[in-house]
Amino acid sequence: MKSSAAAAPAAEPPADPPPEAPARRRSLTERLTERLTARWGSLVTAWRRSLQLRAVATTVLLSALAMLGAGIFLSNQIADGLFQERFGQVQEESVRGLNQVKSNFESAATTDRSSTVAFVNDTLKLVQGDGASVQRDFILTPLPSSENIYVTNTASGGLTTAVIPDSLATTVRDNPGVYWESISFPHATYDTPGLAFGTKVQLPPGREYALYLVYDLESVQQTLDFIHRVLAIGGFLLLCVTGGIAWYTTRLVVRPVSNAAMVSEKLAAGELQERLEVHGEDEIARLGTSFNRMATSLQDQITQLATLSQMQQRFVSDVSHELRTPLTTVRMAAEVLHDARSEFDPVNRRSAELLYNQVERFQTLLNDLLEISRFDAGVALLDAEVLDLVPVVRRVVETASLHAENLGSELRVHVPGDGCMVEMDPRRIERIIRNLVMNAVEHGEGNPIDITVAQDEHAVAVTVRDHGIGMDPDEAARVFDRFWRGDPARARTTGGSGLGLSIATEDTRLHGGWLQAWGQKGEGACFRLTLPRTLGDPVGSSPLPLTPRSQLALGQTLSPGETGPYTASLPTLPSAGFALPGNILRAVPPAERAVAPPALQDGHPGAAAHAADTAPAPARDARPDADPDGDSAVDPTAPADVDPEHGATADDEPGTDQGGRHA
User: Fold this and answer.
1) Does residue 226 contact residue 188 with C-beta atoms inside 8 Å?
2) N- to C-terminal Cα separation, the chain
3) Options 1.10.10.10, 3.30.450.20, 3.30.420.40, 3.40.50.300; which CATH number does 64-223 get?
4) 565 preceded by cis ω (within 30°)?
5) Can you tell me the distance from the alpha carbon of 553 to that of 533, in angstroms, rounded to the nearest whole number?
6) Sign of the CA dihedral 268, 272, 276, 278?
7) What is the pLDDT of residues 281-336, one digit of tens each?
8) Is CATH 1.10.287.130 what the domain over 275-381 is classified as, yes or no?
9) How far is CA 294 from CA 154, 300, 432, 584, in A?
């Protein structure tokens, strides 16, 4: 019994995946091209690096050109001489033979065809055969105007009238006399030069013919070819000898120079004991002797300077360490007097305040010296971790805002909205930025100060731009030197050790970054810190420009032909990497400082650290408003927790240069 249900189709096996296409094999042309390119690159490198190779190659090339010119001249002279010699011989012979045959033909008394042909053949045998050292053949052909002729085209050596140039045939037909022309003498597989002499003759029954004597100059060409081969072989051998002589001669000069270059590189690498080997008394020997004397003098001076540097570093380090104990004692005494100053009379109270502030300044200077000594000794280490740079910048702004308020400057921060993560030592980076900001406040002349943070794929950058007195290029180049000040006569509202920017430079170098400065008199200055996102990565470019010429202020335009720098307050920043306009912080009044800025809400990176750093500190007693004696140059309006000459709190870290713009 058959089922009414249709049978289900059998499941088809899965199709095999298509085979992978085999890797295309490179063609022979591609491989040859790659090898030739590699060889050419090696040759170019050797040409650029080897003075001896260039000297030998130039000598051989110039010698080859000179030999080629001389060979061409000699070949032409020899060929012309051989031709003239053979031409003089065959010309005389051919003229004599043609005239003799012509005379015999004119005196012929034959009257029928057979006797005329026999007479012609017997007569032409006289001019056939070897001529003056060359092969000679003849061609007898009737002229086109001749009719009823007895003798047809006759020739020896298998020649035809095709070897006779048309110009020579026309000349012989139209003019009496003997004429000649150079021809190409055909052979089975090649042609050789030849000469053809022709004249017009007359045969019975009074018909005109053209008679030609043809000379094959193959022997002359063979002689000339042999001379060419001798000249080529001799020139090649002479060229090889010239190249060998040039190589040996240049080696005598280049080898000492190469040795001097090698020894110079070793000296530059610190191997001060290296010297040149001196042989003989010639100019090279005197050069080697002078070089060795110079190297010895440099070694002595470098060794002496290194010894003095080590002694100086040890002295600074030892003195700094020895001063810490008595300074701590003095500082404790100054703090006791400062805390009890309310019980003193105005003069002693002011003296206690000055003593306390100057001890704090001395402490800062001592810490800077210790930090510099650690850099000089090479023992400074990084405590790096991946953190957000924005909270660090905000902490610095919070610290410097009070001093900026006193000087009338507004601190404005432009940061990316999504943070700026970088691998860094936060203590050192905060010290760098604090130095830059305090310097900008000091020299900002009460104008706004812009602190900008930006990032790209490989680096992060912070710029601090003020619109104060500015710097010229010479000052910008020296601003990172130790204890250097652009204007020593300029009064400072804050004191500094003169080492802040130098320490900032060393901190930046530890991170593998850049610290650069730009300035222009009357237009302000800009400092840029650029750090790699990951320690050890090279920094190829910075996310922020250093010179303000590449930026325009909001709403500012340049007229045709006008260039920066700009003088407006708020620059327009590149939009790549973060949103504009960013978050702008103003100088926050004391009553508002406990409030976290909008960008540091709960959950934002760095919010907890910022909350801890911005917690209000215990208040100190207020400073007196004025010096009752009126003879103090210290600003009486400075707050009690700020040094009136230093501008730093008691908790300032080493390297925070808060004085005039100096390193």
Assistant:
1) no
2) 109
3) 3.30.450.20
4) yes
5) 29
6) positive
7) 888 888 889 999 999 998 899 888 888 878 877 777 777 777 778 888 888 988 88
8) yes
9) 94, 10, 41, 59
